[in-house]
Amino acid sequence: MILSKKTREGYLLLDHTASPGVPGLAPKVEVATIRCSHCERQVIRNPARERERHWCPGCNKYVCDGCEVLRRIHGCRPFDQVIEKVMTKHSNLGVI
């Protein structure tokens, strides 16, 4: 099965219809989100953004703007890989 970039999106719904609401915010807001594979940050997609979102060719997933800078310097470092490395290091030290 081939996944498109669109299938990797999440969804955020803010519904203030049953409350006084938030000044300057519509009573109901629906937006698409994406998750950065390098830091696990949820990013709200801005439909007015003109430049493309960053895509890591190493892990074949989205990365946020901050992680794209680091990816260009250090290469692909997905969050899962970083956690695995830390867990392995600590287990070898007898910490965990």
Layout of helices and strands:
Elements: E1 10-15, E2 28-35, E3 42-44, E4 54-56, E5 61-63, H1 65-74, H2 79-93
Antiparallel strand pairs: 1-2, 2-3, 4-5
Question: What does this molecule look like?
Answer:
- The protein is built from 2 helices and 5 strands.
- It has 96 residues and is of the alpha+beta class.
- The protein has one domain (9-93).
- The longest helix is centred in the last third of the chain and has 15 residues, at 79-93.
Quick summary:
The chain has helices at 65-74, 79-93; strands at 10-15, 28-35, 42-44, 54-56, 61-63. It is α+β, with helices and mostly antiparallel strands.
Helix count from the secondary structure assignment:
2
Low-confidence stretches: none
Radius of gyration: 18 Å
**Total domain units:** 1
**Cross-sheet strand order for the largest sheet:** 1-2-3
Described by strand count, sense and barrel closure, the largest sheet is:
3 strands, antiparallel
Instruction: Spell out the helices and strands N to C.
Output: EEEEEHH
How much of the sequence lies in strands comes to 15-25%
Can you count the beta strands?
Answer: 5
Q: How much helix, percentage-wise, in residues?
A: 25-40%
Give average pLDDT, whole number: 86
First-to-last CA distance: 38 Å
Q: Classify the secondary structure makeup into a structural class.
A: alpha+beta
Silhouette: extended
List the main descriptive attributes of the protein structure presented here.
96 residues, alpha+beta, 3-stranded antiparallel sheet, two-stranded antiparallel ribbon, 2 helices, 5 strands, 26% helix, 24% strand
